[in-house]
Structure formats: C-alpha cells, structure tokens
C-alpha cells in the first residue's frame, strides 16, 4: 500500500511538472503572438500625403480636361497603381482646403473661408487626433506650405500636436530660389529650390523614423510665381526667365514636372519593405491658376471659383491597403480626408465633425459614403456656397442669387437652368439640394 501511495505521489509530481512546463510554454507563445499583433511597424501603414498647390484636372494626366499635359511618370505611377477619384471636391483656394483636411470641418465652422485666413489653435488637428486615439502610434510631420496663420511668419504649426514642422508658413514665395524657411518657429532665408528643399526635409525626417509615420508633404509648386526650375527636373526646354506678357503655360508645366521629379526622388529613398507598407495620397488643393486654365475651364471658372474648375480637383490613392484600380465616381470632399486618414491609421471612426471616411472605397466598389458635396468661399466681397448630389449643383450667393446646373448633361456649367422653366424632376432636385444646404448650414 505504501508503495502505491509513493507511486501516486510521483505521478502527481510528474503531472504538475508537465502542466507547469506546458503553461509556461503557452504563455511565452501567447506573448510572442500578442507582440506580433500589436507591433505597429508590422500592422500599421505609413501614410504619405502629398498636396500640389494650384493643380487642376486640366494640368495633369488622367483626365480629359486640358490639351497640354506635363510629363509626370511618378505621379502617373501613383495613379495607375491605384484609384482616381474623379468626383473629389476641394475648396476654391488653398487655405480652406487645408483647414478642412486638418480639422475635418466645413469652412464656416473654422472661419477659414479664403486664402490667408487663420485656423484657431484650439482646433483638434488630424495629427493630434490620430495619436490621441492610437496611444501615440504615429510619428507625424508636416513639411512645406502651411498657409493657415495669416500674416504671422513666425508661427510654429507644432502647436497643433504635429511632431515636426519645417517649410513655408506664408502662402506664396517671391522666388522659388529666395524664400523664408521656418523650422522650430524660427525663420531663415534660403536659396535652395523650394521643391527640392521640401523633398530633402521629408526624406531626412522619414529616414530617422523607427515607428509608423504620417508625412504631410505640401509643395508650393506649381503655384505662381512662374519660374524656371533646374533643367534636369523638367522637359520644357531652355526657358528664358519669365517676364510679364510671356506664355505662362510652359513655366507652369515645368514646375509640375519638377515636383514630379522630386516625388520620384522621395519614393526612391524609401526602402522597398517600408514602401510596400506605405499608402500614398496625392491631391491638388484647388483648380489651376486663372492665367493657365485650359478648356473646358476658363479664367473665371478655375481657381477661386465654386465652379467645377475651381473645386473638382485630382486625387489619386495607391499603395498599402489599396486593392482597387481605375476611376471611382463616388462623391468625396477634402473634409473627408480627416476621417479617412484616421481610419487608415487605426482609429475606429467612420464619421466625425463634417468628415466621412471613404476607406472602404479603397478595397470595395460599393455605394458612396455621402450623398452630397459641399464647398464655400468668402473672399471679403463675395460670400457663396455650393452643393451637389453628383447630378445637379446649386451655387448660391449670400445676396440671394442662384445658379443651378445639370452636371450630367452640362458638366462644365454653361447652362444655368434657372434661366428657363424647370421640369418636375429638376424642381425636385433643386428642392432636395436647397433642403440639404439648409441642413448643413443650420
């Protein structure tokens, strides 16, 4: 009997020893799995957001608008490997577009309605929101044009929760070769070509990052002044210095090509494994400058207007998490980039402020996330707003005057339907748009 008890005790000891070993082994395995799941470098994409300044559909490949196009192999590659959002709306000028993206709000809520308006520092920025909701997962940087601080040339955008800022605080340079670079709130005159210097700053910052990064790269190209970029960056030939009265178009195209050249250099600097884990978003912030607007747009329906030539601008998205190719016709606005980029970064958000995430469209050809697009302008003399459901569009002035267009039959807004009697379907569409406009602006 005693031997039986001894053997049972030994068996029990062996059983518990094996059990402890198995539990320890399982615990180690589960910790390794959790680390793999939670490792942001493996599961979270880098985000490269590129803004071109004053780039309309008529000035880039991929659209029927415009007859003269620049040579842009790098931007073309972004477009060809991803999605072209053909119904993307911005605002008529740069500041409100940038404010809508960084805040996720319509202009009348932030007060940034025109170029040079100031964004209040109390606004929750896209960068700050992402890191607040993801426990500081991302390193964030904004390089290039800011233009959300009025005439304040010493402002530091890092107060918005951006880890690093370097670039052009004001909206326009006097010369692409002589301008003020602001870094850490301190300005200094530099003679480097702006497009190249911004790219250098972006490359240097990205190469230092050890965790997922969000780079907002805002070129001031191809915004005026018209200039001659370094010869190796463009294909427009031996251009003389621009003088008033000359044809501006080749200078405008050269600036776009130089930007494309630098985008290529930036992408080449990113190691292949990091690039494969990077999503790229490229947009124009408003229509092309009035001097170089091409048919079907005109001087009066390009930059600065609420016509399609002023607000319906390029957006291409490709890279990590983008499985669709070709054109997408869903209604999207610049405001929607706040929620979309947040969701890409891992924030569980579909709608916030005036922003609706269209992340689902990167992988699925489904119904749109919004039924209406909205934009506005207030340049001090004219206060207008526009709304569209994709088929019809209203442009309304504060003074009560209205324009009403059928964008299917008249995509470039040549026939104001209010100059004649409306059909029943047109009347219903007008009432629907007016109702939604009241709802948005209430």
Automatic annotation (TrEMBL):
<feature type="domain" description="Sulfatase N-terminal">
    <location>
        <begin position="45"/>
        <end position="347"/>
    </location>
</feature>
<keyword id="KW-0378">Hydrolase</keyword>
<dbReference type="Pfam" id="PF00884">
    <property type="entry name" value="Sulfatase"/>
</dbReference>
<dbReference type="InterPro" id="IPR000917">
    <property type="entry name" value="Sulfatase_N"/>
</dbReference>
<dbReference type="InterPro" id="IPR017850">
    <property type="entry name" value="Alkaline_phosphatase_core_sf"/>
</dbReference>
<protein>
    <submittedName>
        <fullName>Arylsulfatase A-like enzyme</fullName>
    </submittedName>
</protein>
<dbReference type="InterPro" id="IPR050738">
    <property type="entry name" value="Sulfatase"/>
</dbReference>
<comment type="similarity">
    <text>Belongs to the sulfatase family.</text>
</comment>
């Amino acid at each position: 009997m005693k031997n039986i008890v001894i053997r049972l005790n030994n068996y029990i000891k062996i059983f518990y020893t094996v059990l402890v070993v198995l539990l320890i082994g399982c615990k180690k395995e589960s910790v390794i799995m959790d680390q793999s799941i939670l490792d942001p470098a493996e599961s979270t994409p880098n985000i490269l957001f590129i803004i071109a300044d004053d780039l309309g559909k008529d000035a880039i490949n991929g659209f029927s608008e415009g007859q003269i196009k620049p040579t842009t192999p790098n931007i073309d590659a972004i477009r060809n490997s991803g999605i072209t959002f053909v119904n993307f709306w911005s605002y008529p000028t740069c500041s409100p577009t940038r404010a809508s993206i960084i805040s996720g709000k319509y202009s009348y809520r932030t007060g940034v309605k025109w170029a040079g308006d100031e964004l209040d520092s109390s606004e929750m920025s896209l960068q700050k929101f992402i890191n607040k909701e993801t426990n500081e997962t991302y390193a964030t940087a904004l390089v290039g044009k800011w233009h959300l601080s009025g005439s304040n040339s010493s402002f530091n955008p890092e107060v918005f929760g951006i880890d690093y800022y370097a670039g052009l605080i004001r909206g326009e340079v006097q010369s692409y070769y002589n301008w003020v670079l602001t870094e850490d709130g301190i300005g200094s005159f530099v003679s480097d070509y702006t497009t190249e210097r911004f790219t250098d700053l972006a490359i240097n910052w990205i190469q230092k990052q050890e965790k997922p990064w969000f780079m907002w790269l805002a070129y001031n190209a191809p915004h005026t002044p018209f200039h001659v970029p370094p010869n190796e960056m463009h294909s427009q030939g031996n251009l003389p210095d621009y003088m008033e009265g000359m044809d501006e178009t080749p200078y405008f195209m050269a600036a776009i090509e130089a930007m494309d050249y630098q985008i290529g250099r930036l992408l080449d600097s990113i190691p292949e494994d990091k690039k494969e884990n990077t999503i790229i978003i490229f947009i124009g912030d408003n229509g092309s400058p009035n001097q170089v607007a091409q048919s079907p747009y005109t001087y009066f329906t390009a930059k600065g207007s609420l016509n399609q030539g002023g607000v319906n601008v390029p957006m291409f998205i490709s890279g990590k998490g983008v499985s669709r190719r070709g054109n997408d016709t869903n209604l999207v606005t610049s405001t929607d980039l706040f929620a979309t980029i947040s969701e890409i970064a891992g924030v569980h958000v579909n709608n916030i402020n005036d922003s609706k995430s269209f992340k689902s469209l990167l992988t699925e050809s489904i119904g749109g996330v919004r039924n209406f697009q909205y934009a506005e302008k207030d340049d001090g003399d004219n206060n207008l707003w526009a709304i569209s459901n994709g088929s019809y569009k209203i442009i309304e002035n504060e003074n009560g005057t209205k324009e009403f267009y059928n964008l299917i039959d008249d995509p470039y807004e040549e026939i104001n339907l209010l100059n004649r009697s409306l059909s029943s379907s047109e009347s219903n569409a007008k009432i629907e748009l007016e109702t939604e406009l009241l709802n948005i602006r209430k």
